[in-house]
User: Fold this.
Amino acid sequence: MLSRYVTLGLIPISLGLSYFQFLPISIEQSLIGSISAYTFLFTISYSYYLITKRVGLGQGDIELLAGIGSFLGFFGWWFTLLLASLLGSFTGFFIILFYNRSLTKVKIPFGPFLALGAMTFVLCNQFISSIWQF
Assistant:
């Protein structure tokens, strides 16, 4: 479990780094990435709670994606979330399949998948951008 100081602390650091042009995105892109990532995951999490009356996504995951969005921008957090969701879904599927667990009893932390998705985007950014022409 990551501290809120770590996840939310990423945002001012990335804003400063983008302001001084140490990141490949502008300060506006950093701010848009952070706000849009937080808003998107918060909306999904809150909607799930309203429908099921259960918490399906922790606040730390939402804040971590906001921090990732502040470093990678809009396209970066979107790719991170897509890859993390796919990897988490496959992992959950295999846990249910091989360990005969009930779908409602399996709790899989989402943060490691977000971190893996962000690292993949950073390491493969040129290749990913050339595929989608961004």
About this structure: The chain has a mean pLDDT of 91.
